[in-house]
Amino acid sequence: MYKYDHYDRKIVNQRVDQYEDQLNRYFNKELTDEEFRPLRLQNGLYIQRHAPMLRVAIPYGLLSSNQLRALADIADEFDRGYGHFSTRQNIQFNWPKLEETPKILRKLADVEMHAIQTSGNCIRNITTDPYAGVTPDEIVDTRYIAEILRQWSTFHPEFALLPRKFKISISGSKQDRALVKTHDIGLELVKEDDDLFVNVFVGGGLGRTPVIGQLLKEKLPIEHLLSYCESIIRIYNLYGRRDNMYKARIKILVKALGVESFKKQVEDDWNDGKNSSNHLNDKEISRVKQFFTSPDYEVLESTDLEGQYSEDQNFLKWIKRNTRDHIKIGYRSVTISLKGKKQTAPGDIQSTEMRVVADLADQYSFGEIRSTHEQNLVLADVKEKNLFDVYSVLRENNLGEANIGLITDIICCPGGDFCSLANAKSIPIAKSIDNLFDNYDFLFDIGTISLNISGCMNACGHHHVGNIGILGVDKDGSEWYQITLGGQQGVNASLGKVIGPSFSADEVPAVIKEILNVYIAQRDTEEELFIDCYNRIGLDPFKEAIYKN
User: Fold this and answer.
1) All structural domains of the chain
2) What is the pLDDT of residues 395-406, one digit of tens each?
3) Which end of the chain is least crowded, N or C, by CB within 10 Å?
4) pLDDT by residue (tens digit) across 232-273?
5) Phi and psi of 188, rounded to 5°?
6) pTM to 2 decimal places
């Protein structure tokens, strides 16, 4: 994984010094709340419902074991013993004291971490496929591209104060696990012979106005990646709305201008500067690429896990749901579920659990951990012969839930329990749905299905692209929940449709149960996935069943 050079160390340490001075000036009343607000946001600090919230950057979701241990120490020393992994592959601390935040940032800097560009109207954390470099369907390992974009975007002088936050995601596999079509800029890497190109999507996003991104540039040569992205953001920075935060995202500008008109402006700007210093040459690519070489894999044979562990069906179910094929024979990638009944909230992880995962990474996966936008963790390089040992440790520590891709693998924002923007609570709804399923056989029978929950229209829980989406809404001061069906992420990304009037919190579990009953009754075969069944029969059968009374 990428290691800081002297530039990284210098700018991160300088930023901590700068922020500490700003905070002291704020406490001394030399800065007003309004003056301090953009300064704290530049350092990942929000004021939430009960306390400040500090969002720590995990660039493209890659962590070392030492970094995860440092996060555990911070959770114990400065928070309430846990952290929350977000849908942007970052981690959040919900209970730090404002006066102690410089100490936290220094501890992060000691392990090559920071909170820069995790909030505010800037280019946010670059995200990518959590299985990059190890998945068999990979065309290109995207991690080095993500790192190049990180270095380019960090403290970019022109784009520090954009009209609104700006998100970039990259996919280099046949299956899009990075949601490229729901980002301000989505980058899809493709190869022709040995040449690398980028399909550039623009204007995607969820939130109040959900939009699937449109293809802006097909087969852009990789050497022009930075200059082309810069032109896109420059046009957005020039013409994006600053008078209305709800209409300030690039998707609104693209829609207002039309994609062809927007493209013309981007191309005009780009043609003037595409051969500038932002030209991505082979030397620069090689410099960054060297940090992402393959680990020292052993030459192994496949292990007959089903034959060897035929008596342990729980383990085999975990293998089926929580592990993935690997590019190397004899290895698998393990996804650790941060969901289920034993977890406080989807994406939450206790400090003790962080240390367990860090130890497992050191012992079995080259000391690396990845975070996912689905709020889980990944050990990317585990030998098949060690899987039972990994599973046993995870199970002993409440991390062995065999539910990846099942309906209890819920994506969920913190909601009204923490967020000051939320219209309704999200976590209790997730728990009430999770409590419906005590029978793993039933969960496995339902099969792969995504259920996403957001506490407000900002859609931090990605409810628009859940097969089942739940949105908290305010109705006359009360919390209600709107339900959508048919959302989907990936190469065939689609937005869910609202089924009808919203429901009270108490009604939601029964509605979810009825949706599943319709699916089970209507599916062609036991293998037909929920989303495929929905696309075949449409919304009406679900709507009729839910509102029949």
Assistant:
1) 6-110 (3.90.480.20), 134-291 (3.30.413.10), 305-396 (3.90.480.20), 411-546 (3.30.413.10)
2) 999 999 999 999
3) C
4) 999 999 999 999 999 999 999 999 999 999 999 999 999 988
5) -115, 110
6) 0.97
